[in-house]
Amino acid sequence: MSSRDLDAAGITDPHMRESYERCRELNAQHGKTYYLATLLLPPGKRPYVHALYGFARYADEIVDDLSSTLTDEEKAEWLQTWGDAFLADIGRGYSEDPVCMAVVDTVRRWNIPTEYFTAFLKSMRMDLTVTEYETYDDLYEYVYGSAAVIGLQMVPILEPTTPEAYERAMDLGVAFQLANFVRDVNEDLDRGRVYLPMEDLRRFGVDRAVLEERVATPEVKAALRHQIDRVRRLEARSRSGVEMLHPSSRDCIEAARVLYCGIAEQVVQIDYEIFKKRARVPIVRRLAVALPAWARAVRARRKYGPGHVHGINPGSGSAPTPAAHS
Q: Which terminus, N or C, of the chain has the lesser number of Cβ atoms within 10 Å?
């Protein structure tokens, strides 16, 4: 992270700067599309977004690390201990953990509700015990904590102009997650998990055993198409939320929306052959979205300013109730 970003964010303590840099590295390493979108934010807001993503990525890597010598029970115990310590650190206003130090600082600067992180940690623990979900409502309990709350955490930093921005952020976060589920069926099977609702699969004559054969049959393609339709509905519903943010934040979220939901469209482009290929948004497409967005973002900052960059939350309210969205 450039010193310019940290300086613009008002982050001066050397240890705190190191923690924010660690979070930025996690973001850059594991979330290339998301990282690219983050660069469209005013410099003074980027470190806070890196902190939130770094926290989520750090926990997720522990859960999904197939090379780890830890059992799922040991991972669950570690996650519980680490998560409890983090929540306690929020209460006392400071953490000595090299990742959580920046996250706690971000939470306190922007008054982000602790309950969002409680829900996230709950979903991470579910990954260690739940291997499939019967209905979409069942899946949504997991997705609320693993994805919807990530959007909710972000909104205060993006400066909403209306409370409805929180609902739209949830829609977009869930769309991102479902697009990942469709792309990653093969990899998730390697981890012993299926994130496509069993009820939905059966509608098209598919069950877990069929998925385990790892062949994109007409039935499997129809089941994937059904999930992509759900991504499209959520993505369409989220679009109005972009205009509910400070002008300097809009291009970041718009670029993330186009690129991340574009993963689902790439699955269509490869004819749903997810067991043979990994759907990726081409670099040409990324640049075609990012470069014009960069120019718009610079103009917006010049016209409207960067917004509050030192952590002044206009008011975040309570977390919306986790209810299923079809």
A: C
For residue 51, what is the enclosing H or E element? helix 46-64
pLDDT tens, N- to C-terminus, the chain (326 residues): 468 999 999 999 999 999 999 999 998 887 777 888 899 999 999 999 999 999 998 888 778 765 567 788 888 888 999 999 999 999 999 999 999 999 999 999 999 999 999 999 999 999 999 999 999 999 999 999 999 999 999 999 999 999 999 999 999 999 999 999 999 999 999 999 999 999 999 999 999 999 999 999 999 999 999 999 999 999 999 999 999 999 999 999 999 999 999 999 999 999 999 999 999 888 888 889 988 999 999 999 999 999 998 876 554 444 555 555 55
Query: The tokens 């409805």 sit on which residue?
Result: 164
Question: Side chain identity at 117, as an amino acid letter?
Answer: F
- Ramachandran angles phi, psi of 159, nearest 5°: 65, 85
